[in-house]
Amino acid sequence: MFAMRKIPWGKYIFLMLVAGFVLVPMFATVLGGFKSLGELRTNPFGLPEVWEFEYYAQVFADGSIWQLMKNSLIIAFFSVLLTLIIGTMTAFTFSHIKFAGYKYLYNYFLIGMMFPAAAAILPLFLKIRDLGLLDSLSGVVIPQVAFGLGFSILLFRTFFEQLPSELFDAARVDGCSYIKFYWHVILPLSTPILATVGVFVLVASWNNYLLPLLVLNTEQQYPWTLGIMQYRGEYGIEWNRILAYVTVTITPAIVFFLFAQKYIVEGLTGGAVKG
Amino acid sequence: MSNNVTPEKRVKVASNQSAASNQSVSRWFKKNNHGNRLLTLVLFLPPALLLFTIFVILPIGEAGYYSLFRWNGYGEPTKWVEFGNYTRLFKHSAFDTAVWNTLKIILISIVIQLPLALIIALSIYKKSWTNSLFRLIFFLPYILAEVAAGLIWRFVFDGDYGVMSSFTEALNTDSWYILADNNWAFVAILVVLVWKYFGFHMMIYIAALQGVPKDLIEASKLDGASRFQAIWYVKIPLIISGITISIFFSILGALQTFDLIMPLTGGGPSNSTHTLVSYLYTFGITRMNVGFGSAVGVVLFICCVIFAFTYQSTMMKDKK
């Protein structure tokens, strides 16, 4: 018998230090919204001595924050929906309908994954402008979908090909058409991968900054990432207001993360491990 | 003989031929369209193909074309400047800085961020509730939007309010505005980058480590391997594919760093903290220098392509 395992203190101290490095700025942000500017200056990281609620109240008061969140949500929703539909359709043709030259076409989509979206951002901007999509939410959604396709087709195809081929043979013997097979068999069996890709696209869209910055001009259309930068521009160094604003805007992402951890981790690292 | 063929006959022959070809087409169609196979193809493929071509592939080609003009994006590009944009670019000292900064990000990722992520992954990859909690904490920064993370750290680095003010007060010196300091601003950004992304790499390593068969580690222990030897000779070789992937991601990410720069410094002070993309944004997009901006994009694109191919042919050679 071994004696009681000794607790590796060194390891825990190290982990606690790193955890502190990660968490202290976050706690300071949440608490900073409850402090007056004077207190923030003398006590940036501790608990507030006097809890002030007005800064948080003001963030909600003018209502623009709801509009921002709504826009972000609309953009994210349609990006996820379109990526899932178009991505699965394409991946299905690659996995189940082999046609002449499909490998080249598949690689065509894969090379897109290596392109940095920013490299061609000016021509992309002109394209969006010439198509009349400037300053509209679809001008953000459609390019986002296009850029997410390579990655999602890769993950979908890998998953579809791992489904037992007996399913497909049986369906074909029963006279099931390809479209029906896709709709009634493939999609219902693919919920794990749909969730994984969906979460990836959702998070990427929710956090996207460069594309909306380029495409959108009117504040009515802004997603929260643009709103937060504008708020910071308005209030300059009134850090307590800005911190309250940051806290409110990042809360949905953190809550979502706590609830959907498994899928988020898979969605964000899954491509790496499986690919 | 052929002269005797009447027009009617000719028509007949022709129609016979076309009927035959029609027949073969329809036969080919029937043979290949079992279960509406072809129809599905025609319905399912074009949306992705169109979107991808129009918004991803074409703009890359256009960037190459536009980069040879001086153009503000209105009308047709007419002012051909050959490689003028490129020579202007390579002479610009801010572009030099941007390239160096990008290299610094890559260096810090490989020398500090990835080893840190690996050490942490090794110490918390086993399943237990404390380990899950640590994993959760370390991954948290990664899911924050870059702009939010940037603003949080801008506060932390603020010489009047943040951690810097606590330091300078404790030392009784003047306030230090690190983000406005030419020499140190980018170091501050590197700290934020590590903070933001090490959790992502940690997760890749954890996923890989959990796939390492336990009996291998047990066997190495029975053979008298120390903990360090077990890590160095057993675990790390077995997760090498995870490591190559994470290096790949960190370099590709470094080449595209932008969102964090804007809320932290916006590229300043005096253009000392630009990355390739923030440089492209500042000097190409905000001034609508389509030609010049496209030239930056082309350079960025070529960097990525060269990197991707050398990477594939060296690091991933044995992984086919």
TrEMBL record, chain A:
Domain (ABC transmembrane type-1) ranges: 69-260
Classification via InterPro entries: MetI-like (IPR000515), MetI-like_sf (IPR035906)
Membrane disposition: Multi-pass membrane protein
Annotated GO biological process: transmembrane transport
Residues passing through the membrane, by range: 12-34, 73-94, 106-126, 138-160, 181-206, 242-260
Entry protein name: Carbohydrate ABC transporter permease
Family classification: Belongs to the binding-protein-dependent transport system permease family.
Domain of life: Bacteria
Entry annotated with the keyword Mitochondrion: no
Any Pfam family the entry gives: BPD_transp_1
Recorded GO CC terms: plasma membrane
Location of the protein in the cell: Cell membrane
Keywords, alphabetical: Cell membrane, Membrane, Transmembrane, Transmembrane helix, Transport
Automatic annotation (TrEMBL), chain B:
Example GO BP: transmembrane transport
Taxonomy, superkingdom: Bacteria
Keyword tags: Cell membrane, Membrane, Transmembrane, Transmembrane helix, Transport
Record flagged with keyword Nucleotide-binding: no
Membrane topology summary: Multi-pass membrane protein
A Pfam family it matches: BPD_transp_1
Bilayer-spanning residue ranges: 38-61, 105-125, 137-156, 184-209, 230-255, 290-311
Family from the record: Belongs to the binding-protein-dependent transport system permease family.
Protein name: Sugar ABC transporter permease
Upper lineage: Bacteria, Pseudomonadati, Pseudomonadota, Gammaproteobacteria, Oceanospirillales
